[in-house]
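Re: weekly structure request thread

Next one in the queue (299 aa):
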Amino acid sequence: MSNPIEKKEKPGNQILIECGKGQIKINGLKVSFPIHLNTLQDLFGEPSKQEYDLLWQVVWDELGIYVDYGSWDNILNMNFLLSSNHELRHFPTRFFSGQITIDKKNVTHDDFAEFDLKKHKVRKLTYKGYTEPYSISIGKNFDYKEEIPKDKYLIKDLTEEQIEFSDFGFKLSIIQELMYNKELLKPKFDLYEFVEWYDKREIDIDKEGHRPIPEVTQYFKDLPIPKKYTSDITEIYQDGGNDIYLQLLRYGEGWEDYWDIENTEDAKQFPNLKKAVLCYAKENVIDEFNKMGIECEWL
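Done, posted below.
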């Protein structure tokens, strides 16, 4: 899968990382790990460089921040450079000049090994042969296991009117907007959590993630969407890196046609839908949307 780097406005060098047992905030925005590269770009602006050496390394030189990852939608930690006490490559040219707080106390330059924050850990990293740490790492705590409610991914009947869809591809575009962009539709589906929760058979993402996993596809086909949300949709934007497609096909390449919108009939239910940018759609759909007064174009 490609690693898109879009130009974002730089946030300036004053970065405040606030850590606590309940959450992590970056300049006031709540985040959690794993985190998406797009989220980091929104927070830190366009990276200075991105290189590949066994893992992808993305660096924000002016901020002293860097990450490495295997999958750009599943970044497990981020790092803040404090000193040059290392012999490693792919590091920022400047040190981190912001603040990292634990329960409102600035610990950026304190002497500590790690803080256990339940879901997350804050650690100081020391290179072999050196005693002074070179970086602070904030990320997922692999020792923490959150119990998944037994009914979390059970499909429940709605007690209110729901939207009836005739086109699965269009429904997925709506789910992207309501579940991941606007966070109105819950629970927010997470593939790895769903696989852990699912007990009817063992699902192996590494082996099955190159094609749609039937149980995951069926979940979204069965998922009811309240009709009250129709007025909340003003646009749809398809991209191979959308959360919804990464849940449906973990190792997709962007050329797939499993979720092509085939007709525009469902759009009539969304009175405020005025714009659509598409990459998964049949050729006729663009013209049909435009004739309906919905400004539509290919990605």
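The helical segments are 37-44, 168-181, 191-197, 205-208, 214-222, 243-248, 283-291. The CA atoms of residues 154 and 219 lie 9 Å apart.
Next request, please.
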